[in-house]
UniProtKB/TrEMBL annotation:
Keywords in alphabetical order: ATP-binding, Kinase, Magnesium, Metal-binding, Nucleotide-binding, Pyruvate, Transferase
Cofactor: Mg(2+)
Ranges of residues in domain PEP-utilising enzyme C-terminal: 530-882
Domain (Pyruvate phosphate dikinase AMP/ATP-binding) ranges: 31-65, 73-302, 313-368
Molecular functions (GO terms): ATP binding; kinase activity; metal ion binding; pyruvate, phosphate dikinase activity
Similarity comment: family membership: Belongs to the PEP-utilizing enzyme family.
Keyword ATP-binding included in the entry's annotation: yes
Active-site annotation: 467 (tele-phosphohistidine intermediate), 844 (proton donor)
UniProt keyword rRNA-binding, yes or no: no
Function according to Swiss-Prot or TrEMBL: Catalyzes the reversible phosphorylation of pyruvate and phosphate.
Protein's recorded name: Pyruvate, phosphate dikinase
Length: 892
């Protein structure tokens, strides 16, 4: 520990990038941050990058550990880098002739778009602004840069409200009779700077700092502080980003996109991040700086138009695009600036994309020879496939829908909802069970929560790379941006479009793939899975070794899962089958019965229903295995708890209401999840098992007669001891034999009998349990509940605290706890197979559809995972990724 501390102290804090030298070879992204590492890398491969230096994330960590103080030696290291910059650029920091200006930029190891603040034009003072005006022979530009600095510095470093700045700006615009920022003349900018300084002094009580090094130090600190603002913390929570040291700080010499009509700034993707098309995609703004594009203040032009403005720059940009793609072998999201016709690269990072784009890009890049199949498979975030499986608007319904207006197709999807006008409102109404669309003029990082909970996002300004668009695409949330015909009045909670007004109760439909905004609820239809998606699935199947089954209780779900590629049912829950109208009455009668005889009579009436369900499912699965779990929940769950309903039942089955209520009371348990449920029910009431097994066997025979190869597997839940399973297995075998005899069927049914492993004791004694089981299926929901001792229905009372205090890395019910619960799984597999070499082992908890858990299942050698029908494609891909990650090769 002591050693580690000493090492951290002496670690290099600052890395330079530029013509003089580019340091940081082999230093990880975790230390330099994504932005810093890529700035150095672009410099190294010869791209035009303004020189600068990166202060590491370790310094951010030291800053917090040292009680929010910058390490003492940092200022010295920074001063040295500034000196190198001055030499390289032949400019001087704070100079009254030709001043060096820098930007101060955040940059963590994981990109957090718009989450942290950038300060531009740092180094300008009352003296150096004159120097800049003289050196560039452009007074307007110099004061435009200065007012931006005062504004950003006030905002980011001093936490000022940007309102007061905006007011001052409006006054100047009014005075000069202009509406656009760019039309304010030089004299206006000079006056604006004076006004801004006055606002600054009034709100902070201090003068705007005139020492550039002081400006720099305060800005560096502000970037470190921005790491822990509530919006940054919230973003990391939502995105599940954990375990980072902090943010790096990039100090980079300025280039100016605001020097006139031969200058500009832009952002672009090397390919279309929305649909994956291999077409350069982005936007630029003439005579603008920095965040003007992303903030959506003015509407930018598409990059394709750039050749009309400056052919040479456009050509160079296209070449850089190709260089970057062949260097990084992936789609890049870039930021650039043109200063008087010279192009500079300011950022590159892996481009976030929608699920559909990820699939297309992966396939295209294999075709282009840029990457191989395993890389293509590994690169698609398995969970993002969900987006491709979502419904889209039904073509016919869309044809007859009223299109109110059209915005930019910023993030694909079909969203239907009522209008919410603030992020907070979107969160509250969604929590209350409503579907809402978040409608904003433009979104900002403060809106994250609302954007996350809304079904879709609609903005009236901003382009394809605006904040709303970028964030929505990252989440696969439907977004239509820049629908300029919509007038939004957030205060009055209404929008006006096409002469009509709509409010919080009105429902609109957004098509994120076309940008259309439609009136009312437009019907959606199921997706078609072909082309590139089918190709990815085919490749996935060639690499994965895990089988993929599904959890399904109905023929419709079974069929859907088969269409998605499921190779069987890993969990068919029978309790859901008892809730339908007619059946629940008989079920209750059975449960309320006090005599075995009455119980058997009720069960006999349930038998045909159950048999019919199984025939339906076996038929839908066409010869694929179907694991049927015998009745699992405590019986008490089927009974009504209010006296009125109890009286009704009493009447129905002809007993007194008092009798019903006393039986309900008798069945009450203080801890039902650990009570009379699972196999314990069959121990007490063997006739329930008999009925269920009879239904399964009769259904199988019926299918065989119709030449449908039913592959039934009978699963006995909640086993904790081998003796339980021994007893129930014998009972099941007897029943199978009896049904076959009754039906005079002497063919082979090949019915397997196995158990769920969901009680820790079953895992611990798996070698004994396996004597009586032909298969195991890990029920990791219960296993997690019982291993942690957390009630899975009540975990939300404390889980948020456990996550925020990092006691747990993730919700253990969502992602399998490999180090704890995982040990039981691994032990169950090993011990089980030590008794029965060919034991089939799978998993059927929620974890079966979670990519990280699937990786674990692959590593411990399970035969299959089982998940909900919609997650089957995700599981196929995740299983392939697990195989590839663990050194697997393509199957012959
Ligand atoms: P974010 O992480 O929010 O994208 P950046 O640090 O990338 O923030 O800064 C935002 C924008 O500021 C950049 O896209 C770029 O246009 C502008 N910018 C940053 N540094 C410089 C610089 N040295 N010269 C010119 N513009 C800059
Ligand atoms: Mg950026
Ligand atoms: Mg269970």
């Amino acid at each position: 520990m002591a050693k580690k501390k000493a090492a951290a102290k002496s670690a290099k804090m600052v890395y330079y990038f530029g013509k003089t030298k580019t340091e940081g070879k082999g230093v990880s992204k975790a230390i330099l941050g994504g932005k810093g590492m890529n700035l150095a890398e672009m410099t190294k491969i010869g791209l035009p990058v303004p020189p600068g230096f990166t202060i590491t994330t370790e310094v951010c960590d030291m800053y917090y550990k040292g009680g929010q103080k910058l390490p003492k030696t940092l200022s010295n290291d920074v001063a040295k880098c500034i000196a190198t910059l001055e030499k390289e650029l032949k400019k001087k920091f704070g100079d009254d002739k030709n001043p060096l200006l820098v930007s101060v930029r955040s940059g963590a190891a994981v990109s957090m778009p718009g989450m942290m603040n950038t300060i531009l034009n740092l180094g300008l003072t009352d003296t150096s602004v004159v120097g800049l005006a003289n050196a560039t022979n452009n007074e307007r530009f110099a004061y435009d840069a200065y007012r931006r600095l005062i504004n950003m510095f006030g905002d980011v470093v001093m936490g000022m409200d940007h309102h007061s700045f905006e007011e001052a700006f409006s006054k100047i615009k009014l005075k000069y009779g202009v509406s656009q920022d760019t039309d304010v003349p030089a004299q206006g900018m000079i006056e604006l700077c004076e006004a801004y300084k006055a606002v600054y002094k009034k709100e902070t009580g201090e003068d705007f700092p005139q020492d550039p090094l002081k400006q720099l130090e305060l800005s560096i600190e502000a970037v470190f502080k921005s790491w822990n603002t509530s919006r940054a913390v919230r973003y990391r929570e939502v995105e599940n980003i954990r375990g980072l040291l902090g943010t790096a700080v990039n100090v980079q010499s300025m280039v100016y996109g605001n020097m006139g009509d031969d200058s500009g700034t832009g952002v672009a993707f090397t390919r279309n991040p929305s649909n994956g098309q291999n077409k350069f995609y982005g936007e630029f703004l003439i005579n603008a700086q920095g965040e003007d594009v992303v903030a959506g203040i003015r509407t930018p032009q598409p990059v394709a138009e750039m050749s009309k403005w400056n052919r040479a720059v456009y050509k160079q940009l296209l070449e850089i695009k190709d260089t970057l793609e062949s260097h990084y072998k992936d789609v890049q999201d870039i930021e650039f600036t043109i200063e008087k016709g010279d192009l500079f690269m300011l950022q590159t990072r892996t481009g976030k994309r929608t699920g559909a784009a990820a699939v297309k890009i992966a396939c295209d890049m294999v075709k282009e020879g840029l990457i191989d199949e395993p890389t293509a498979l590994s690169r698609i975030p398995a969970n993002d496939l969900t987006q491709l499986l979502l419904p889209s608007f039904d073509a016919a319904a869309k044809g007859s829908a009223t299109v109110l207006t059209r915005g930019l197709p910023a993030s694909p999807g079909a969203a239907v909802g009522a209008l919410a006008f603030t992020a907070e409102e979107a969160v509250l109404r969604t929590q209350a069970g409503e579907k809402v669309l978040l409608v904003r003029k433009e979104t900002s990082p403060e809106d994250i929560d609302g954007m996350h909970s809304a079904a879709g996002i609609l903005t009236s300004t901003g382009g394809m790379t605006s904040h709303a668009a970028v964030v929505a695409r990252g989440w696969g949330r439907c977004c239509v941006a820049g629908a300029g015909e919509i007038e939004i009045d957030a205060k009055a909670k209404k929008i006006k479009v096409g002469g009509k007004t709509y409010g919080p109760k009105d429902i609109l439909s957004l098509d994120g793939s076309s940008g259309e905004v439609m009136l009312g609820e437009v019907a959606t239809s199921e997706p078609k899975l072909s082309g590139d998606f089918a190709k990815i699935m085919k490749w996935a199947d060639e690499y994965r070794t895990l089988g993929i089954r599904t959890n399904a209780d109905t023929p419709a779900d079974s069929k859907r899962a088969r269409d998605f590629g499921a190779e069987g049912i890993g969990l068919c829950r029978t309790e859901h089958m008892f809730f339908e109208d007619e059946r629940i009455g008989i079920m209750r009668e059975m449960i309320l019965a006090e005599e075995e005889d009455t119980r058997r009579k009720a069960l006999k009436r349930l038998l045909p229903f159950q048999r019919k369900d199984f025939v339906g499912i076996f038929t839908a699965m066409k010869g694929l295995p179907v694991t049927v779990r015998l009745l699992d929940p405590p019986l008490h769950e089927f009974l009504p708890h209010d006296s009125k309903a109890q009286a009704e039942i009493a009447k129905e089955i002809g007993v007194t209401a008092a009798k019903v209520s006393s039986r309900v009371a008798q069945l009450h348990e203080s801890n039902p999840m650990l009570g009379h449920r699972g196999c314990r029910l069959s121990v007490t009431y063997p006739e329930i098992l008999e009925m269920q097994v009879t239904a399964i066997v009769q259904a199988a025979i019926e299918c065989k007669k119709k030449r449908i190869d039913a592959q039934a597997e009978i699963m006995i839940p909640l086993v904790g001891t081998a003796a339980e399973l021994k007893l129930l297995r014998e009972k099941a075998e007897e029943t199978i034999a009896k049904v076959k005899a009754d039906k005079k069927f002497d063919g082979k049914l090949g019915i397997l009998i196995g158990t769920m492993i969901e009680i820790p004791r079953a895992a611990l004694t798996a070698d004994e349990v396996a004597e009586y089981a032909e298969f195991f299926s890990f029920g990791t929901n219960d296993l997690t509940q019982m291993t942690f001792g957390y009630s899975r229905d009540d975990i939300n009372t404390f889980l948020p605290d456990y996550l925020s205090k990092e006691i747990l890395p993730v919700d253990p019910f969502q992602s399998l706890d490999a180090s704890g619960v995982g040990q039981l799984v691994e032990m169950g597999v090993t011990k089980g197979r030590s008794t029965r070499k060919k034991l089939k082992v799978g998993i059927c908890g929620e974890h079966g559809g979670d990519p990280a858990s699937i990786d674990f299942c692959h590593r411990v050698g399970l035969d299959y995972v089982s998940c909900s029908p919609f997650r089957v494609p995700i599981a196929r891909l995740a299983a392939a990724q697990a195989a590839i990650r663990n050194g697997g090769k393509k199957k012959k």
